Amino acid sequence: MSSLAVTVLGSASPYPRPDNPCSGYLVSTANTRLWVDAGTGTLAELQRHTRLTDLDGIWLSHLHADHCADLLTAYYALLYADVRLDAPIPLFGPPGSTDRLAGFLTNGPTRSPVESAFAVTELTDGHHAEVGGLTLTTRAVDHGMPAFALRVRSGDRSLVYSGDTAPCAALTTLAQGCDVLLCEADSATASTDEPPVHHTPEEAGQTAAKAGVGKLIVTHLSPFLTPPEAVTRAAAHYPGRVDHAAPGEVFRMA
């Protein structure tokens, strides 16, 4: 049996609220800890559960600030504070992650040594990696920029995280038969003027139903949605259990 769990560090979109940081999750087993998305405010919440130096890796879905901004403060913690880093933390991120971080952090003629804090691997569609006891599979998804969804497997249990994306075949395929789908619902209504880049709650339910997942957790809700409304609307299209990714919640796949 697996002890795979996901702890919600934050789920606010597109800016942090009191008591709810932006997107960030701690995916863990008894022996492995993976920080998935590092949105604004999530570093502080991460430290309620683990130390930075105890992380086995970091995975980023895309480079919008509400999913990656706390890497900037993590960098300072790792290199210039009381944290003692034995080796750079493995960081899996979209193409350009290293230069994007360096661009924010460099303040002078010398490039900030991002590589001293993070050992960066750029994600590609279909990328596979082993991090501690976790198997990571990444698929490119539809967000109008390089963006990825993630499947995490530990033993016979699996979690799929949508990142930010419109409904797409890649996410449905990646989520097929998983125990839990953690899916964004950042659109209150379907877009009629532009190509969609987010799910509505109804679409989150439809994706979960098509993929035959064991449970749906809606996250990254539009500011114009309440959690009960999002859950109710998603549940109308998915026959299984639907929950909301409330900050501090721990969901276990046992």
TrEMBL record:
Pfam families: Lactamase_B_2 (PF12706). One of its GO terms (molecular function) is 3'-tRNA processing endoribonuclease activity. The keyword Hydrolase applies. Keywords: Hydrolase. InterPro entries: Metallo-B-lactamas (IPR001279), RibonucZ/Hydroxyglut_hydro (IPR036866). Residues 21-198 form the Metallo-beta-lactamase domain. This is Metal-dependent hydrolase, beta-lactamase superfamily III. It comes from Actinoalloteichus fjordicus.
